[in-house]
Design brief:
single chain, mainly alpha, 5 helices, MHC class II transactivator
Length: 97
């Protein structure tokens, strides 16, 4: 299995059982860690197709980040109470994942 396919499988698994607010918190974290630009963050928030979202996140992690670190953060954050959705000037966020 390629490194990208491995990351993609992990991202798909994580996103498949998450609420939109949890996915937004994950994307917010990627933005805070400067793995996403504000414009790309907004575009991902508006992505209606879950498979396309998983591919885009996976490509970003492959190119810019340490996927293992990001997944560890996600696992840790699951132990905390869910965050309230935040508006980051991304008009049109439709919450479909």
């Amino acid at each position: 299995m390629s490194h990208f396919q491995s990351i993609l499988t992990r991202v798909q698994t994580l996103l498949s059982s998450r609420q939109p607010s949890q996915v937004q918190a994950f994307l917010d974290h990627l933005l805070e860690e400067q793995l996403l630009s504000k414009e790309y963050h907004c575009a991902l928030l508006q992505e209606p197709d879950g498979e396309a979202l998983a591919r885009k996140i996976s490509l970003t992690l492959l190119e810019k980040g340490d996927p293992d670190w990001v997944f560890l953060w996600w696992a840790w954050s699951e132990l905390q109470a869910p965050e309230v959705e935040r508006d980051l000037d991304c008009s049109g966020h439709n919450g479909k994942w």
